[in-house]
Amino acid sequence: MTADVDTDAGGDGPDTVLIVEDNPGDLRLIEEAFRAARLETTLHAVSTGEAALDFVYRRGEYVDAPEPDVILLDWNLPKMDGEDVLCELEDGLAQIPVVVMTGAHAKETIAESETDRIDTYLTKPSDPTEYVDAIHSVY
């Protein structure tokens, strides 16, 4: 799954956001939250950790991908999870902030992770209307 959404409605925030999310429902809520937050942002979405790395390193179908200003990374991805993705990001990409998104039950797993590449994390809201507040809390 790859989706590009232009949320250019005015406001502050990052210009280009890479969303790494395998759940189509969560992705839709995140995209809607960015629109509702009125951030001047272009969203790019991938559904796997492997695709996230291809996007960031501009490999395969992502050869012309822009460098993201922020990566929103689902922690619980199949095959290659969020921690694996972060471990694969080289030092040259350390300037890209990473916001980990996860369910409430995974906070301890994130805290115990071996990576120091997490800039912050968001607990995915249980109420869809709270996604806008979650996006504003980071941007």
From TrEMBL:
Residues with PTM 4-aspartylphosphate: D74
Residue ranges of every copy of the Response regulatory domain listed in the record: 16-139
InterPro entries, alphabetized: CheY-like_superfamily, Sig_transdc_resp-reg_receiver, TCS_response_regulator
CDD domains with a match to the protein in the record: REC_Rcp-like
Keyword entries, A-Z: Phosphoprotein
An individual GO BP term: phosphorelay signal transduction system
Phosphoprotein in keyword set: yes
Protein's name in the database: Response regulator
Organism, as annotated: Natronoglomus mannanivorans
Organism placement in taxonomy: Archaea, Methanobacteriati, Methanobacteriota, Stenosarchaea group, Halobacteria
